[in-house]
Specification:
The complex is a heterodimer of chains A (189) and B (227). Helix content of chain A is 71%, strand content 0%. Chain A is built from nine helices and no strands. In chain A, helix 2 crosses helix 4, helix 4 (67-86) packs across helix 8 (147-154) and helix 7 packs across helix 9. The longest helix of chain A has 23 residues, at 15-37. Chain B is mostly helical and 227 residues long. Helix content of chain B is 70%, strand content 4%. In chain B, helix 1 (3-14) packs parallel to helix 3 (34-50). The chains are: A mainly alpha (189), B mainly alpha (227). Chains A and B meet through helix 2, helix 3, helix 6, helix 7 and helix 9 of A and helix 1 and helix 3 of B.
Chain lengths: 189, 227
């Protein structure tokens, strides 16, 4: 069943339809917030708040076909609110500095260590981007949204989004070069 | 196509949002410019590096609990339902309802307490209970009493003024006599001092003359003896 149909069902009084929407979108919103903050706790909190807000405001959604974009907009605003509230300017979190998960599979000992460190640095590099560039990079690179969808979510023009992405990738390239992160590090796969 | 336009298309290109024609056109243009070609490769490499970023899935599945619906059970007293039905729901309505209730209670209480609202020369006034009789003028006895009181007060006032004037006059006389006595004393002292100075001067003059006379007589005697 499509999201739009579930939204309509929920608005028609079917509470379980919303839980189905949660089941569909929880991972994506959690991943989005995790990549933004590099913190599981923050990601869980943002995800929870996003769905609570969506539950309360779903009747204000004009176009049920755009539920996904609308949900990302809520999550994005909550991420920005969290940044303002916590006043966090940290370039990385303690969690990022731990050994990265899901990465040390069947790799030689030394190679695995280098790879883990490189993964930590990847996240640190992403966290060093300005918020608006980081948001666009995450939405495009990891969430797979189109430029049009991102422009709608962030209420900007498509060219602005492309420009932010371009400068974001350029900045990441510089950071990777300065930290000596190369493709070869991940070639153990 | 300019280089800047090509750079904007880079984003569409590396994320596969160009159609075939645009893609071929961009590739043709990029192949003619080594710097753009290098830049595009770098962006693609950066993208491929980002693909390795790890992610964590949520620890638990969220479930939204359905809020409890408002029950219509008969356990609530009937008057609560009636009150809820009669009381307005909006903030504006509640405010208006509260004001109307206050006005109503005000007049009901006024009726029980003989409230009287009046607006006279002295301003707006609200009184409760029996009203005092309104006095429109003075009786002859009251007028006589007032006149007598005014006369007494006037006599007392005049008496006080006279006494005060007498006291002030006495004080002024005493001050004048004291000043005159001081003046006489000063004058006397001055005269005595002048007399003393005169006598001293006379004494000195007399002494000088005696001395001069003795000196002249001495010279005469000496002159006569020599001759």
């Amino acid at each position: 069943m499509e999201d739009a149909r579930l939204v309509q069902d929920f608005l028609g009084g079917n509470h379980q339809a919303f839980n189905q929407l949660v089941g569909r979108w929880q991972d994506r919103i959690h991943h989005f917030a995790y990549r933004y903050f590099a913190s599981s706790d923050d990601a869980a909190e943002i995800t929870q708040k996003t769905f609570i807000k969506a539950y309360q405001k779903l009747n204000t959604l004009d176009d049920v076909q755009k539920f996904g974009s609308w949900l990302y907009r809520i999550a994005n605003n909550l991420c920005l609110d969290e940044l303002k509230r916590a006043g966090r300017k940290r370039s990385t979190s303690l969690e990022v500095l731990k050994v990265a998960p899901q990465t040390q599979l069947e790799t030689p000992a030394d190679g695995g260590l280098i790879r883990s460190e490189a993964l930590v640095l990847l996240h640190k590099a992403l966290l060093q981007l300005p918020n608006e560039q980081r948001m666009v990079v995450i939405m495009k690179e990891y969430e797979g949204l189109t430029f049009k969808e991102i422009a709608e979510i962030l209420d900007e023009s498509e060219n602005t989004i492309k420009s932010r992405l371009y400068y974001g990738l350029r900045a990441l390239k510089k950071t990777f070069d300065s930290w000596n992160i190369k493709k070869e590090v991940f070639s153990y796969d | 196509m300019t280089k800047d336009e090509a750079r904007i298309l880079f984003m569409d290109y590396i994320y596969g949002e160009l159609n075939d024609t645009e893609k071929q056109e961009l590739e043709l243009f990029v192949n003619q410019h080594e710097d753009l070609k290098l830049e595009l490769e770098e962006l693609s490499d950066t993208r491929s590096l980002l693909q390795h970023l790890p992610v964590q899935s949520p620890a638990e599945q969220l479930v939204m609990m359905e809020p409890e619906k408002k029950s219509t059970s008969t356990s609530e007293p009937w008057w609560k339902g009636l009150a809820a039905f009669l009381s307005p729901q909006s903030g504006f309505g509640r405010t208006g309802f509260a004001m109307a209730t206050f006005v109503f209670l005000f007049f009901v209480m006024g009726a029980f307490t003989n409230m009287n609202i009046s607006n006279g020369d002295n301003g707006f006034s609200i009184t409760f209970g029996e009203q005092p009789p309104v006095q429109t003028g003075y009786s002859a006895a009251q007028v006589e009493m007032i006149i007598n009181q005014v006369q007494r007060e006037n006599a007392q006032l005049v008496n006080e003024i006279v006494l005060a004037a007498q006291e002030q006059q006495e004080v002024q006389f005493q001050q004048t006599f004291a000043s005159f006595a001081d003046y006489l004393n000063d004058q006397r002292s001055t005269d005595l001092e002048l007399i003393n100075i005169g006598l001293t001067s006379l004494e000195e003059t007399t002494y000088d003359r005696f001395r001069q006379t003795d000196q002249v007589l001495g010279e005469i005697i000496e002159t006569v003896s020599i001759k």
